[in-house]
Amino acid sequence: MKSLFFALLSLSTTLIVYGQTSTKKIGGPCEGCEAIYESPIPFDQLPYSVSLPDLNNAGPKIEISGIVYERDGVTAAKDVVLYVYHTDRKGIYPTTGNEKGWDKRHGYIRGWVKTDKNGHYQIRTLRPAAYPERNIPEHIHITVKEPGKNEYYLDDFLFSDDPLLPKTPSKTPRGGNGVVTLTAAKNGMQHATRDIILGLNIPDYR
């Protein structure tokens, strides 16, 4: 009887391990999402708030903050890493010439945060400009890494007053609506809020 018990236990353990190692990735293809692992600060030491490298340059300063929720849209999600990057005020991803990883394409205006115990995050930066001679609206890219799951991208941060904003919004925004509305400037900075729901409209999410 003991032999049967340990045999079943071994089989169960093998199935569990197999299930973990053969799990299908969520989120679908995501070029450049691996840049989230280039954080100069270990994930377990990341703060919930970051000022991107361009903040002290000339231009409209913005702060975007919010709460990241679990898939139920109610439970705050702690220890979720967010990676963001965007163009400068000329609409390009600026580089310094010393880049070695994805910052060759993403530029140096990028940063990482990790949600606090209440799911809060905060990002301070300059408002990005649209790509030169293109009809794509101003945007901030965002990638997310949840504990126990692979990284995946969310809908970009967009701005409600952008004349290039699509007239018909996405019906299935990844992570929830990414369009933010900036307030009037206070102390030299505009503010906006975006809450995020993990897994919302993310393929193969479990």
Topology readout:
Layout: H1 2-21, E1 49-51, E2 61-69, E3 81-86, H2 103-106, E4 110-114, E5 120-126, E6 140-145, E7 152-153, E8 158-159, E9 179-180, E10 189-193, E11 196-197
Parallel strand pairs: 1-5, 2-10, 2-11, 8-9
Antiparallel strand pairs: 2-5, 3-4, 3-6, 6-7
List keywords for this structure.
single chain; 206 residues; alpha/beta; Protocatechuate 3,4-Dioxygenase, subunit A; 5-stranded mixed beta sheet; 4-stranded antiparallel beta sheet; 2 helices; 12% helix; disordered N terminus; Intradiol_RC_Dioxygenase; oxidoreductase; Intradiol_dOase_core; Intradiol_dOase_C
Describe the model.
Residues 53-166 form the Intradiol ring-cleavage dioxygenases domain. The protein has a single domain (30-197), classed as Sandwich (Protocatechuate 3,4-Dioxygenase, subunit A). The chain is 12% helix and 24% strand. The chain contains two helices and eleven strands. Strands 1, 2, 5, 10 and 11 form a five-stranded mixed sheet that branches. The radius of gyration is 20 Å and the shape is globular. The two termini are 37 Å apart. Residues 1-22 have low confidence and may be disordered.
